[in-house]
Amino acid sequence: MEKPKERRKERRLHYRWLIWIAEDFNKALCQGHMVDVCSRGTSFTCAADKNIPLEGQRITSRFSVPYFGSGKSCTMASFTRIGRVCRVEEVDRFVRRVAIQFSEPLPFKPGEQAGIKSESEMEERLKGLTI
What we know:
mainly beta; Thrombin, subunit H; 6-stranded antiparallel barrel; 7 strands; globular
């Protein structure tokens, strides 16, 4: 069987970290857990309730991404991004996975940071950060 062609232009950073989303940050916020992030978007899981964003909806997200410096240094870079919901998938009857595309990209590529050559090296460096 032939492998499907990879369409992604950038390697994702896979990790679980909190993300806050809302249609309007002056109203109630919803919490989710990030699944992966790249400079142009993110996906996250959230409870399958009445607050699930809908495909095509414009939402605002607030989240942090690890930024690896030289050596073993790491800081968390925090962002607020407006984006459009590209996809909503049912994980099970209680959880949905939501993908959003940012209207403005992040200033770096989280999954392609300098000095990190493989997924396993990235996972090792993230061990102390995940919740």
